[in-house]
Amino acid sequence: MSGRARFEDRVMYQGDVWVRLDTLPRLLAEGWRRTLMSGGVVSVVRTPFQWAMGSPVIEIETGGYMGDVGLYVPEVQLREALVLLGDGEDGAPPT
């Protein structure tokens, strides 16, 4: 078994269905979140410990959890998110 964190593909969060774009290192996920935010897409990061709606800069600067996280967007914004991240054709997130 690998040490990579595992997150569900679809989850209920705050009363809505959210879809996992990918599981990736925290710093990369935060970069993708900035791209999504600039395009008007809401996103949330899920660590093994909690959900994070905002980028917890203090956590990053102080060496908080930097391992793999799940990056989620609302299901209703999935297509927009994929286009913003550079993939609008087959529905799969960019690699």
Detail the topology: elements first, then pairings:
Blueprint: E1 10-13, E2 16-25, H1 26-38, E3 44-46, E4 51-52, H2 57-61, E5 68-74, H3 78-84
Antiparallel strand pairs: 1-2, 2-5, 3-4, 3-5
Descriptors for this entry?
DUF304 domain-containing protein, 27% strand, alpha+beta, 5 strands, 95 residues
Structure at a glance:
The protein is α+β, with helices and mostly antiparallel strands and 95 residues long. It has helices at residues 26-38, 57-61, 78-84; strands at residues 10-13, 16-25, 44-46, 51-52, 68-74.
Architecture overview:
With 95 residues, the chain is of the alpha+beta class. It has one domain. It has three helices and five strands. It has helices spanning 26-38, 57-61, 78-84, and strands spanning 10-13, 16-25, 44-46, 51-52, 68-74. Strands 1-2-5-3-4 form a five-stranded antiparallel beta sheet. Strand 1 (10-13) and strand 2 form a beta hairpin. The radius of gyration is 13 Å and the shape is globular. The two termini are 22 Å apart. The model has no long low-confidence stretch (mean pLDDT 83).
C-alpha end-to-end distance = 22 Å
Biggest sheet statistics: 5 strands, antiparallel
State the share of residues found in helices, binned by percent. 25-40%
Over all CA atoms, what is the radius of gyration?
13 Å
Q: What is the string of helix and strand elements?
A: EEHEEHEH
* Strand order in the largest sheet: 1-2-5-3-4
Give the mean pLDDT. Answer: 83
| Weakly predicted, low-confidence segments | none
Question: How many domains is the backbone divided into?
Answer: 1
Structure classification: alpha+beta
Shape annotation = globular
Give the strand tally. Answer: 5
Q: Helix tally?
A: 3
Percent strand equals 25-35%
